[in-house]
Amino acid sequence: MPGLILARYGEIGLKGKNRWLFEEKLIERMRAALAGCGVEGIEREYGRIYVRVSEDVEKACRRLTRVFGLVAVSPAVSADLDLEAIKAAAAAALAEARAEGHTTFKVDTRRPNKSFPLTSPEVNRALGTHLLRTFPDLKVDVHNPAVKLEVELRERAYIYWRSLPGPGGLPLGVSGRAVLLLSGGIDSPVAGWMAMKRGVEIIPVYFHSFPFTSDRAKEKVVDLCRVLARYAGRIKLYVIPFTDIQKALHQGGPDELQTILLRRMMMRIARRIAEREGAVALITGESVGQVASQTLPSLAATGAVVDLPILRPLIALDKEEIIARAKSIGTFEISIRPYADCCTVFVPRHPETRPDLDRVARVEAGLVDPALIDAALERAEISEIEDESTEEGSWEA
Amino acid sequence: MPEIYLDNSATTRVRPEVVAAMVRVMEEDYGNPSSVHRRGQAAEQAVKAARRAVAEVLAVSPEEIVFTSGGTEANNLAILGLARARARQGRHLITTAAEHHSVLEAFHRLENEGFQVTYLPVDREGLPDLHALAEALSPETILVSTMHVNNEVGAVTPLEEIAQLLNQRKPRPAWHVDAVQGFARLPLLPYRLGIDLVSLSAHKIRGPKGVGALFVRRGTRLQPQLLGGGQEAGLRSGTENVPGIVGLGVAARLAWEERAEAVAHMSKLKARLRDRILAEIPDTVANGPKERGAPHILNISFGGLRGEVLLHALEERGIYVSTGSACSSHHAPGSHVLAAMRLPPALRDGAIRFSLAPTNTEEEIDYTVECLKEIVPELRAVMRRR
After folding, report:
1. What is the ipTM of this complex?
2. How many independent structural domains does chain B possess?
3. I need a labelling partner for B224 at 20 to 30 A (CA). Which of A299, A308, B150, B198 fits?
4. Are both B226 and B344 inside the same structural domain?
5. Catalytic annotation present for B327
6. Interface list for chain B against chain A, based on CB atoms closer than 8 Å
7. Residue B217 contacts by C-beta under 8 Å, 6 or more apart in sequence?
């Protein structure tokens, strides 16, 4: 059914002079998310964005729940600023709720437009009386209503009774671009999502060590990107052939430093991709102390090779917290498929937890021919991954 | 790049004669075999012909063949169906530790229903311990289930010896044989041995996926596991998968006709592959029986390597093999069969299964060996550096 959608945004409303920039970006993202939904118009008013669509409103609402920056999305009806018109619209909205089996309600009016002659409590009372008369089988329950009929009196009146939560955060892209080191495990996709939520557009890079890691591991990463693409529309993925570099490190480097050396090479390659893509930071799924390569000295050793900020959104989260997020984003089930990534292929028996920076630099010197890095970048497989999902969110009355 | 498919125990490539027969039946005999009209009758005839072809391989009557959706369903129907039908006569069941998951999981389900199950240990070659079988048999035992050919190591169960043990028993327990890996390749005569139930699958013998059958010896009572229109003598409701069944019939007939030649050819290839690998690549061990081995399955451990890595390295050269069985590759813990054979974990990790079809050639075997000779030392150099 065609209709009107009321989208609410949160933090952007607190911005100062450049708020319009954030709003423009948000509207751009909403338009992209609504491709194919028959958008007829998007208007904004303080703290609200109104979208009129000619296609299915419900579908459009669900699409919007993945647009960062929005905190809630509701199908709404609007009416002229006239009490009789508002009564009629409110009755239409409540009829919908009643058809779904709800039996109690409450009217909750807000009146940012003070030119409307009645106060909010007066509107509540007038509408409540009218609705009780129209639907004698419904009851008012001011404490615990099944349906909260929200009425907003602005340039027009807007009425809605149900909403879907949005992801919050900032519109994707307002914070610039960063390269995400994506492994296929549980952590890195969550790290990517969290950065996206703060408006960072991500370019994931995956390091593929065939035959030490299987093509199924690569497929897993593609599937993870597909989930992230639900929030971004599309994701550009770099797959870097890493076998030769990994072999070189393994053959020449000491066992206990393997993971550190590996991570340093990944950082360097990610740095090169960032340059190419105009990205200004790197993102990893590291969390302090989770494994040997994520102790503070190890993080220092891996971070030392790049001059870009490294964002580590999970740095202070516990594994359980990360897993909970992975489940809610929808990446968990993919991440736990049993295909190893390249970090787990040659796990040292006794990995170094306090690598000495000088020693690392010394053993690393001459280990990997720079030509190998160039070759890996040249042979990178780059693909654009799009959202293909059809799943639905659930409504909150 | 050549394509050398040595994973025929996972599945085989459908043969053209089977494709042609299936296409014909989809286009022409599209009726429902249960329909009373002529279209239905034509489809029923096609199913009947397939039933005869399968029955002929086992030397049983066509009425004793029940078509299913494959080996898994046949195993489930045999085990769950028999135990549930005979629950009042006894609560004890016997199988082996090296069975396929579709057998083991059915027994686990029955354990939850209150049955007691003995899992016979297997020896280093993968063959079940018959002394343990003799000891486990009791008047409470209602079912014994043993596989014909082990899917991972190719061990061929000595069915004659089991028959002798079982035929002495009174009351005699029912006997189910999972013949998915041996059907139409190795002879299996249920009436001669006294086997009551035999499971088989089409896609292991160059037929289509999604179809198989269960031989149910006349007079063997089973509880159906699917309820509905009572097709397949009431044992397997659901409109027959006519094209699949026709495909199974053609595949079975042709495999059986070509059996002698095929077995001789595959045995020769297997011996060549095994002998060359063991002789030319150091630190390799063949898993499974030296004598009682199926002609088409060869399992070899490459010391110091992870099977999966070798698999992908071979894949890069166009050679397709598997680690363990394809079905269990989804389970992280690795092969339960090699574990039951008490293979040390390092050798289990490095195990690769080569499984042959009659269409493989000596050149393919030699190419495979040459590739292995290049790849294995390379990978070992990387993985064993310390």
Report:
1. 0.70
2. 2
3. B150
4. no
5. yes
6. 308-313, 315-316, 330, 332, 379, 381-383, 385-386
7. B60, B64, B190, B191, B195, B196, B197
